Amino acid sequence: MKPQPKSGVLDIEIYVPGKSRAPEGIKLHKLSSNETPLGPPPAAVEAARQALLHLEQYPDGQASDLKAAIAEVHGLNPKNILCGNGSDELLGLLCQCYLGPGDEAIHTEHGFLVYGIQIRAAGATPVVAPEKDRTADVDAILARVTEKTKLVFLANPNNPTGTYLPFDEVRRLQAGLPGNVVLVLDAAYAEYVRRNDYGAGVELVSATDNVVMTRTFSKIYGLAGLRVGWLYGPETIVSTLDRVRGPFNLNAAAIAAGAAAARDRAFVEEAARFNAEWLEWTAKALEGLGLEVTPSVGNFLLVHFDDAAGRGAAEADAFLTERGFIMRRVAGYGFPNALRMSIGTEEANRGAVAALAEFLGRSS
Ligand code: PMP
């Protein structure tokens, strides 16, 4: 007999991240992982550099300074915050602590791939709720709740669609769930959203005892390489996850850089402004080429190649890669004929549009 992993684990498809290479000698414009084109905040780089001088020491297992910075900036109590090695880790901890064999967890049709992976890794069953107009559908989610349901994942805004659910709808979702079901609001892209009817979830977490919100420093804060995420939730849930996490789940450079980045509010404001400007420009330019683009409030666009263009995403991807523009294939998310493009530098955005115009045989 050979060792066998627990049931369900071998059904998991390996998560393949966005490509990060261009052909030799071609300038790389990596637009495949929704990273910021603006780099990390200089204050965070300096804080990380200082932390590297003490590598012989374990990091602070409580990540106290990082929690304090997050609490200060968002007006929260540090007791309600848990930091993770990226928000991916926190999503996994939620599954580890709240799911087991026989349980179900719901996510939406085009939801973030990590949900399905972590639900299966916990031995539970993912239940997929269809979307409406590539947007989460509260009624479809609620219709799938059974007595086996323990978690509901909602990425808001969602990756890879870039669509969002207005706060009233999120509130309606929470109100419709049984009290023992934890609603996970994954707000990885919250800082980019400029809509009055959007809320990342802070108010809902504060007002209820079955909602958590996850956030990340990987996107607008420019620290994807250090892996820093955080969760805001009721003390009982935070303390549950706290027991199961690795004792030193964040490294010292991540804690120091995260705290410095959290406090650099001017950096985030400028990054949000830059993104809004280029998100709009890029969406319009792509539509001008006859491509369908899903309306996005994040830092990326889902670009469809179906009817308008007549040629497929795979060909477009190969054409773009040859020219150094690396985008994300999203077949694994249920979009075989689309590419996800992160908003990049001005040069990258203009260059990608020009390359797509060439691909389609049109002028940009
Ligand atoms: N949630 C969503 C919706 C994401 O798109 C991502 C990053 N791709 C994450 C969570 C994970 O972010 P990280 O682990 O880098 O914090």
TrEMBL record:
Q: Which InterPro entries match?
A: Aminotransferase_I/II_large (IPR004839), HisP_aminotrans (IPR005861), HistidinolP_aminotransfase (IPR050106), PyrdxlP-dep_Trfase (IPR015424), PyrdxlP-dep_Trfase_major (IPR015421), PyrdxlP-dep_Trfase_small (IPR015422)
Q: In which pathway does it act?
A: Amino-acid biosynthesis; L-histidine biosynthesis; L-histidine from 5-phospho-alpha-D-ribose 1-diphosphate: step 7/9
- According to its UniProt record, the EC number is 2.6.1.9
Q: Which Gene3D superfamilies does the UniProt record give?
A: Aspartate Aminotransferase, domain 1, Type I PLP-dependent aspartate aminotransferase-like (Major domain)
Single GO molecular function: histidinol-phosphate transaminase activity
N6-(pyridoxal phosphate)lysine: residues bearing it: K219
Cofactor entry: pyridoxal 5'-phosphate
The UniProt catalytic activity note for this protein reads:
L-histidinol phosphate + 2-oxoglutarate = 3-(imidazol-4-yl)-2-oxopropyl phosphate + L-glutamate
Sequence ranges assigned to domain Aminotransferase class I/classII large in this UniProt record: 29-356
Q: How does it assemble?
A: Homodimer.
Q: Which NCBIfam families match?
A: hisC
Give the UniProt family note.
Belongs to the class-II pyridoxal-phosphate-dependent aminotransferase family. Histidinol-phosphate aminotransferase subfamily.
For this entry, the protein name equals Histidinol-phosphate aminotransferase
What is the species of this protein? Jiella sonneratiae
| Upper classification of the organism | Bacteria, Pseudomonadati, Pseudomonadota, Alphaproteobacteria, Hyphomicrobiales
- Name the gene behind this protein: hisC
